[in-house]
Amino acid sequence: MKYLVKIALGLFVYMAAVASCKDDDDSGITGFSIDKEDITMGADGGRDMLTVSSGGEWAASASEPWVSISPANGSGVTECTVSIDSTLINGMRKAEIRFIPRGQAPCVMTVHQTGYGKMIYIEKPDVEIKASDNYSKRYFDMTVTTNVAFKMNTEYDAVPEKEWLTLPKDPTVNLDRGSRPRTAKIRVEWMMNPDFDIRTAKIHFKPQNADDNLEQPAVVTVTQKASPKIEDNRSGDSLALLTIRERLEVGNNWNPGENMRYWDNVVLWEEGDKDLPKGENVVGRVRSVIFNMINTEESIPHEIHYLTYVESLTFFGNTNTATKSITLEDDVCSLRYLKSLTVSAYGLVALSDDLVQLGDRLETLDLGSNNFNSVPSILTKENFPKLKSLNLIGNRRSVLSDLREANDLVKYPDGIGLFFNTKDDNTLRRLFLWDSLEELRLSYNFIEGTLPDFKIGEDGVTGYSQEDVDAFGGDTIQYLIKGGADIPKILPKMRKLSVNLNFFTGNLPEYLMFHPPLIEWDPEVLIYNQMEKGLNSEGKMVRFDNVPSTFDAYFKAFPKLKEKYELKE
């Protein structure tokens, strides 16, 4: 019995020793197996684990370069990592990992990877913007992730639709990795909201290829806040001024907590003022205002029309004026008391045709130092019968002394400024026939050719009469109806005329040489003096050929004016 116990105990120890060896050494494994038959991975790729059990050595290889296994050989029980690259295609793709154990039949595991669907993904589909802001800040960026070329369009809530969002002309995302999505920022510019109501718009993203069906629609909803309500009273005037200041980024240092009467460049109506509108509560309302040190790319803000009783408006000094191309819109047209409008050094290139609505009240119009390439066609005596002063000085984008370069579109793509030849353009003739004007400023432009010639009996031109002489002060200018009876009556009410620093050639006409107020015009500077060393389009030096050295002829014609203006020794 003792002998049998000893045998049993020995067998137990042996079996324990064998089991312990197996735990430390897998050489006892027979056959070959893997714990997965297939792996499925998403489009972005990634890693998965695989257990290989083999009684001998084995090796593995992938059928496609976008799949790898590590380690790729071994024996016994081995933990392997299967790495799958991100895909570049929309559809499914497949690969195989082939295991070859020594002395046994190969084993295959399949790898499936799903492709990207057609997608346009907007990170923030809802955007809220302010009613107004500085021009440089009036935009928002959308983060777009996509794998298709797309187009954009805007749907507005108002009927009829009024566009207030500006989409990029050619929105593109660099799809350099096939169908793998790429992310880009799309910038959208917005206009200020002039209304007292919130407004919304939807920006739709759609594939350029109609066959590309998106997994889900791509839409951005834009909501813009309402403008503060401006009422027709003194408080409304102050709010309008502050809003305009903000939108133009002007330098007016106005304290909202202070009475408007203490604001710089603001004049209010007072009791006893000449031309005070009757029958309305006007005292304390804005009569005139000056905005300067402006920074904008746009016309006068819409809020200007809330200044119901304004008589004089001035906008002066836009930043980088020569680079701007702004159209003066019709927001001032409703100002029924407006008599004087100055929009100078602003960057204007055009006027709205609707500005003729100011014709029955506007007396002064200053458009100097802008970028007009021609005199706006609406500026006629028929459209503005009450206009007394017109200023178009200094409409130059650049300094140019040789007009042979004027048509170089590479150098001057936006034109050089107010440039025309009187030989081909009758603009100057039209302006000189504006007989109600008392001031006409045309200095420092690019006007070339000769001053217009007029004949009595043509274009309604007459000579001077005894009535004209009487209006000028009796026999002071008798010459006009005696020795100079054939001199046409041009600009009869003119008190300030300037055409200097242009590119005129030829002769000074008699109607200027013997114009009664000539001596008041400072003609040596403001008439005779043309662009120094300037050359016209033909390369000819610019100057008048008959500039008088003295005023003797003028004073001979008008002896009483000699007594008035000639210096006494």
Question: What do these coordinates show?
Answer:
It is a single chain. Residues 1-26 have low confidence and may be disordered. An 8-stranded mixed β-sheet has the order 16-17-18-20-22-23-25-27, with helices on one face. Strands 1, 2, 3, 4, 5, 6 and 7 form a 7-stranded mixed β-sheet that branches. The chain is of the alpha/beta class. The protein has helices at 2-24, 234-248, 427-432, 466-472, 510-513, 523-526, 552-557, 559-565, and strands at 32-34, 38-41, 46-62, 67-70, 73-84, 93-101, 107-113, 120-122, 126-129, 139-146, 150-156, 165-166, 182-190, 199-207, 218-224, 266-268, 286-294, 312-318, 326-328, 340-344, 348-351, 364-366, 389-391, 419-421, 439-441, 446-449, 496-498, 503-504. The chain contains 8 helices and 28 strands.
Q: What's the average pLDDT?
A: 89
Radius of gyration: 43 Å
What characteristic shape results from the CA principal axes? elongated
Q: Going across the major beta sheet, what is the strand order?
A: 16-17-18-20-22-23-25-27
Number of helices: 8
The span between the termini is 164 Å
In percent terms, what proportion of residues is strand? 25-35%
Number of domains: 4
- Give the helix level as a range of percent: 10-25%
